[in-house]
Amino acid sequence: MMVAETERLTISKFSIDDAPFFLELVNTPHWLKYIGDRNVKSIEDAEKRITESHIKSYNTNGFGFYVLRLKEGDNKPIGTCGLIKRDTLEHVDIGFAMLPENEGKGYGYESSVAVLKLAKEVFKLETIVAITLPTNAPSIKLIEKLGLTYQKRVKPFDTEEELLLFAKTLNEH
Q1: Are residues 1 and 12 in contact, defined by beta-carbon separation less than 8 angstroms?
Q2: Can you give the pTM of this predicted structure?
Q3: Residue 67: CB partners within 8 Å, gap ≥ 6?
Q4: How far, in whole angstroms, is CA 50 from its chain's centroid?
Q5: What is the pLDDT of residues 56-99, one digit of tens each?
Q6: 14, 64, 115, 153: which has the fewest Cβ within 10 Å?
Q7: Are 87 and 120 within 8 A, CB to CB?
Q8: Distance between CA atoms of 110 and 139, rounded to whole angstroms?
Q9: Beta strands 92-98 and 127-132: pairing type?
């Protein structure tokens, strides 16, 4: 189900049919380096992750991560962008990832602008945060281009790894 579109992309909810794409995405070098190994090694693992994470988030929060597809050509999935409510963070987090051949082409920015608009206008979120590794320069650049500003270092996961937390106010009280 499409939730938004941009000049070059359609932004849709994940479905079980997206398992082959999801399996490929979560095993790309940059995903593994900057986001981490999610132990998705088969189509069945991907289907389970989509069901237990993405679809559950749509049902629980009304939002989640979305599939980005190119309008040109065969509507091929090229990446993901979306919103996640983590128990360890006060505010909803925006995230994004592209297949390697689609990195650096502006799709992350284009999709994030559309997702931020949804966050503000549809989901009525007041604040959006983003987290990233201090070594992930492309992600930091995109987060700052979206208008989020550095707040502090955080450890939102069960590791000793510190991440940078950025935030942006969308709706004033």
Answers
A1: yes
A2: 0.94
A3: 11, 12, 13, 14, 18, 21, 77, 80
A4: 13
A5: 999 999 999 999 999 997 889 999 999 999 999 999 999 999 99
A6: 153
A7: no
A8: 14
A9: parallel
12, 26, 25, 16: which is closest to 47 by C-alpha?
A: 16
Report the alpha-carbon distance of residue 93 to residue 122 in Å, rounded.
Answer: 16
Query: b vs e for 40-77, b when ≥16 Cβ sit within 10 Å of the residue's Cβ?
Result: beeeebbbebbeeebbebbeeeebbbbbbbbeeeeeeb
* Contacts (Cβ under 8 Å, ≥6 apart) of 91: 125, 126, 127, 128, 129, 167
Residues 6+ apart with CB under 8 A from 127: 91, 92, 167, 168, 169, 170
3-state secondary structure (DSSP) of residue 9:
strand
What is the torsional sign of CA 143, 119, 87, 98?
Answer: negative
Would you say 44 and 52 are in contact if contact means Cβ atoms under 8 Å apart?
no
Strand-by-strand arrangement of the 9-13 sheet: 2-5, 9-13, 65-70, 77-84, 92-98, 127-132, 163-169, 149-154
Tell me which residue of 41, 48, 39 sits closest to 16, measured CA to CA: 48
Is the pLDDT at 160 greater than 80? The verdict is no
Query: Which pair of structure tokens corresponds to residue 43?
Result: 């189509």
Question: First-to-last CA distance in the chain?
Answer: 31
